[in-house]
């Protein structure tokens, strides 16, 4: 798994970026703009999956774990959802297509280049009315959610950013009183590349009830899993 990631993420990507004079993320967006149906979020999600499984690997949640994400979102039926780590907007589009009328998703992205790509992806998918993209570090944005973005509590949180931020950001959500009894957290990549600190924290905490969903790394046959942690108050 590590060798495959090094090949895809570092060697192959850098060579292709140099030859084509554009980033992989821009290539994914271009492929969507040329091949997906505007205003159709399912078409956008399927087109990204097609590109990343056939052409260049990318760190979206992917189609297999995407089904776990879908099921969790449908069960939580959130009015207000938070995503940490937007990347190209794949999971923001995937989540938003399942939201009920009047519900909203706040998605946080630290990298300005990824944020710019995601903004175009979200608009092309036609879900911009449901999704608000917040640019900056999660540790700065989370404390602003109540006052600046009028969030009372979060019904659903998808953690898919830097793995070493999973635990401190979960603690921050608690400290900022953003979780209510029944709030659902879903964390990606808990085996590969892994988030052992997060697993240790939520599984040992009396405030969370955890469920593990074994799966595979996006677009690869590498063992991975997602962890659902329901806040008990």
Automatic annotation (TrEMBL):
Its cofactor is Mg(2+). CDD domains: AdoMet_MTases (cd02440). It comes from the Eukaryota. Mg(2+) binds at residues 160, 188-189. One of its GO terms (cellular component) is axon. GO terms for biological process: catecholamine catabolic process; developmental process; dopamine metabolic process; methylation. S-adenosyl-L-methionine binds at residues 61, 91, 109, 160. Its EC number is 2.1.1.6. PROSITE patterns: SAM_OMT_I (PS51682). The keyword Methyltransferase applies. Substrate binds at residues 163, 189, 218. Keywords: Catecholamine metabolism, Magnesium, Metal-binding, Methyltransferase, Neurotransmitter degradation, S-adenosyl-L-methionine, Transferase. One of its GO terms (molecular function) is magnesium ion binding. PANTHER family: CATECHOL O-METHYLTRANSFERASE, CATECHOL O-METHYLTRANSFERASE 1-RELATED. Belongs to the class I-like SAM-binding methyltransferase superfamily. Cation-dependent O-methyltransferase family. This is catechol O-methyltransferase. The lineage of its organism: Eukaryota, Metazoa, Chordata, Craniata, Vertebrata. The gene is Comt.
């Amino acid at each position: 798994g590590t060798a495959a990631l090094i090949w895809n993420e570092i060697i192959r990507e850098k060579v292709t970026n140099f030859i084509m004079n554009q980033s992989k993320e821009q290539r994914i967006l271009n492929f969507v703009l040329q091949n997906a149906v505007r205003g159709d979020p399912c078409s956008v999600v399927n087109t990204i999956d097609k590109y990343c499984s056939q052409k260049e690997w990318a760190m979206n949640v992917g189609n297999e774990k995407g089904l776990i994400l879908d099921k969790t979102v449908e069960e939580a039926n959130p009015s207000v959802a938070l995503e940490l780590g937007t990347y190209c907007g794949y999971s923001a589009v995937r989540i938003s297509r399942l939201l009920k009328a009047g519900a909203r998703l706040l998605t946080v992205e630290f990298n300005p280049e990824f944020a710019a790509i995601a903004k175009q992806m979200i608009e092309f998918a036609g879900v911009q009315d449901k999704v608000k993209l917040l640019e900056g570090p999660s540790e700065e944005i989370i404390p602003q959610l109540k006052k600046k973005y009028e969030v009372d509590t979060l019904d659903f949180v998808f953690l898919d950013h830097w793995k070493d931020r999973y635990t401190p950001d979960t603690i921050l959500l608690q400290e900022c009183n953003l979780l209510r009894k029944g709030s659902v957290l879903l964390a990606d990549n808990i085996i590969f590349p892994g988030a052992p600190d997060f697993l240790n924290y939520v599984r040992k905490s009396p405030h969370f009830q955890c469920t593990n969903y074994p799966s595979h790394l996006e677009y690869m046959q590498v063992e991975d899993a997602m962890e659902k942690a329901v806040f008990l108050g």
